[in-house]
């Protein structure tokens, strides 16, 4: 049985007056000079092996002496290596420079023995000392492996941390121990080994292997969503974060470590995670919609914040949705996989469209207020999807934007229809003899009533106001042009035509000033009436043709029917000239249509000027 050595003693300081003496083997051990102690043993084993090789042991006395020496040598080696291995077992409990120095001695002693073993590599058993190889380095690695195994098995959580799941407790405690010990290795142990030994990588591999085995064991169970997320979080985020702690990252190459979990285990976890997130997003968005629908049914008015209609559902929808998608991206480390969650936005908007249609069809007192706030929600969601298009697959993005456009247009249609209905009686005067006599008076009446109508939008936020009033601006002007094309009047006199053209330009300026001051950003609409007015002033058919071609190049949706109706205002234009003009512009229209860019198409105007 191995005799136990007492606790490790640190070297005593030599007094200045002491006479230097060569320490004995026992003294080296007591002072933890393991390298020097080992060197003494190597000298003794060389002498003993030489005696064996010279055959001197044939004489009984010398044989007995040699056997006694080998026995003492074996006992001394046992004492040395027991102290060395005990020091190695204490590697992760270092707290001082003195203890570091002792560990360094132990490591050097192991490497010294390993070097001695290598000297006898390739020799037959009879040709080398019977006590070689000692395999100290192999034993050293086995000790460290047992040390890591024991520490991970005994890992405990801080009692103040409340975790109820046994799986979470087990994983979290082991991860905590792993991180603490790797920091100890980087701080205390690393400097005790030569660089080429790469001891930090060795420790990291041991801890990684044990932690990986634990996660694989857990992954084989049917996990609840909470434990599934925990497991994925450790694989994708928390464990990489530990390895990327600066002090650890400096001494460990994590790219040389095997994956914590194999792909065939990660894939079902990711699928479960995504299913869970989809369910959470769907539930969250449905609660927002239910809340809004309940408030609307109960006749509640939208909240006001600083005299501006706030849109809590837009904030809630975007935060709920973006938060889950962003979390999935971080968790999975793959934007493409996280995109599968975004289909929930499409489902939500379909339900939202159903609710939206109910609101529009209703006649409840709070309907108008709800639609204004809903418009803000729609615009904010549209802008969010447009700016974050990378989060969505192409089909989901297209579907979402289409739904939002439909709802936005139906909201604008609701308000513009109300506007046109309120202005219907006044619009009858446009393009009539009364308008010829006092176009400015007719325009002022229209704008005064329009202004009273749009006062209700003062509480809208700027973006929503631009969207809504921009649409109303366009519809207001389109109805004005449509009334002018009703063929109620003919202006035969050249002077009257020039006067009417001037009046149209003045009307255009007033309309544009009124609506842009209210919030419209449709600046390009200011040119429509002046360009149409120019056609009234021109008398030469060829000049009219040129102007019409220019007009069609700017407004490709200007149709032959629109042109014909507008030319009816010119009472002095003969039917033959009118026919020639229409024929020419019809040919030009087909050529122009192929050359239009997207900006011009986005500025379509005459397509909403509906004439019979």
List the helices and strands and how they pair.
Blueprint: H1 25-30, H2 34-54, H3 60-89, H4 97-119, H5 136-153, H6 166-189, H7 199-219, H8 225-243, H9 246-249, H10 263-297, E1 304-305, E2 308-309, H11 312-332, H12 335-338, H13 343-361, H14 367-387, H15 394-422, H16 424-427, H17 433-437, H18 439-454, H19 462-484, H20 494-518, H21 528-537, H22 541-554, H23 560-567, H24 575-593, H25 598-602
Helix pairs in contact: 2-3, 2-4, 3-4, 3-5, 5-7, 6-7, 6-8, 8-10, 10-11, 10-13, 11-14, 13-15, 14-15, 14-19, 15-19, 18-20, 19-20, 20-21, 21-22, 22-24, 23-24
Supply the key terms.
elongated; 25 helices; 4 domains; disordered N terminus; 612 residues; Tetracycline Repressor, domain 2; two-stranded antiparallel ribbon; mainly alpha
Please explain how this structure is put together.
By secondary structure, the chain is mainly alpha-helical. The chain folds into four domains: 125 residues, no CATH class; 104 residues, no CATH class; 150 residues, Tetracycline Repressor, domain 2, CATH 1.10.357.50; 186 residues, Orthogonal Bundle (Tetracycline Repressor, domain 2), CATH 1.10.357. Helices cover 69% and strands 1% of the residues. A two-stranded antiparallel sheet has the order 1-2. A hairpin with a 2-residue loop joins strand 1 and strand 2. Helix 2 runs parallel beside helix 4, helix 3 packs parallel to helix 5 and helix 14 runs antiparallel to helix 15. The longest helix has 35 residues. It starts with 24 loop residues before the first helix and ends in a 10-residue tail after the last helix.
């Amino acid at each position: 049985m191995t005799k136990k050595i007492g606790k490790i003693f640190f070297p005593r300081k030599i007094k200045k007056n002491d006479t230097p003496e060569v320490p004995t083997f026992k003294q080296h051990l007591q002072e933890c000079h393991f390298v020097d102690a080992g060197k003494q043993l190597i000298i003794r084993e060389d002498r003993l092996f030489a005696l064996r090789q010279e055959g001197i042991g044939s004489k009984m006395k010398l044989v007995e002496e040699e056997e006694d020496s080998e026995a003492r040598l074996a006992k001394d080696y046992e004492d040395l290596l027991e102290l060395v291995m005990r020091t190695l077992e204490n590697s992760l409990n270092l707290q001082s420079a003195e203890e570091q120095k002792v560990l360094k001695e132990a490591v050097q002693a192991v490497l010294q023995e390993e070097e001695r073993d290598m000297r006898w590599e390739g020799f037959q058993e009879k040709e080398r000392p019977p006590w070689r190889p000692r395999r100290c380095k192999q034993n050293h690695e086995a000790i460290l492996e047992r040390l890591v195994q024991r520490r991970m098995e005994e890992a405990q959580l801080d009692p103040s941390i409340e975790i109820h799941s046994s799986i979470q407790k087990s994983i979290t405690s082991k991860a905590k121990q792993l991180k603490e010990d790797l920091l100890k290795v980087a701080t205390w142990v690393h400097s005790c080994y030569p660089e080429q030994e790469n001891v930090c990588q060795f420790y990291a591999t041991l801890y990684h292997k044990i932690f990986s085995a634990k996660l694989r064991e857990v992954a084989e169970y049917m996990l609840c969503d909470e434990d599934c997320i925990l497991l994925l979080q450790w694989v994708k985020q928390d464990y990489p974060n530990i390895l990327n702690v600066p002090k650890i990252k400096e001494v460990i190459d994590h790219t040389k470590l095997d994956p914590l979990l194999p792909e065939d285990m990660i894939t079902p976890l990711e699928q479960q995670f995504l299913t869970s997130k989809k369910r959470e997003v769907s539930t969250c968005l449905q609660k927002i919609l239910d809340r809004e629908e309940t408030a609307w049914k109960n006749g509640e008015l939208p909240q006001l914040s600083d005299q501006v209609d706030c849109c809590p559902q837009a904030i809630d929808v975007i935060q709920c949705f973006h938060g889950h998608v962003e979390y999935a991206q971080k968790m999975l480390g793959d934007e493409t996989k996280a995109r599968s969650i975004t289909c929930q936005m499409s489902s939500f908007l379909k339900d939202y469209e159903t609710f939206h249609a109910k609101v529009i069809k209703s006649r409840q007192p709070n309907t108008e207020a709800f639609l204004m706030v809903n418009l803000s929600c729609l615009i904010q969601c549209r802008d969010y999807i447009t700016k974050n298009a990378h989060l969505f697959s192409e089909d989901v993005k297209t579907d979402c934007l289409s739904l939002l456009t439909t709802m936005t247009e139906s909201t604008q249609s609701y308000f513009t229809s109300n506007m046109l209905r309120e202005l219907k009686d006044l619009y009858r005067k446009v393009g009539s003899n009364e308008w010829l006599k006092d176009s400015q008076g007719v325009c002022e009446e229209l704008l005064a009533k329009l202004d009273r109508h749009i006062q209700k939008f003062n509480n809208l936020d700027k973006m929503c106001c631009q969207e809504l009033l921009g649409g109303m601006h366009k519809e207001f002007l389109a109805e004005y042009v449509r009334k002018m094309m009703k063929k109620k009047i003919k202006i035969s006199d050249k002077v009257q035509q020039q006067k009417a053209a001037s009046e149209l330009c003045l009307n255009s300026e007033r309309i544009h000033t009124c609506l842009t001051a209210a919030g419209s950003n449709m600046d390009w609409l200011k040119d429509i009436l002046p360009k149409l007015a120019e056609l009234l002033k021109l008398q030469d058919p060829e000049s009219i043709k040129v102007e019409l071609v220019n007009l069609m190049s700017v407004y490709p949706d200007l149709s032959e029917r629109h042109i014909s109706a507008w030319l009816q205002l010119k009472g002095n234009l003969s039917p033959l000239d009118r026919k020639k003009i229409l024929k020419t512009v019809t040919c030009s229209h087909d050529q122009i249509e192929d050359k239009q860019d997207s900006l011009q198409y986005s500025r379509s105007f005459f397509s909403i000027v509906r004439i019979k």
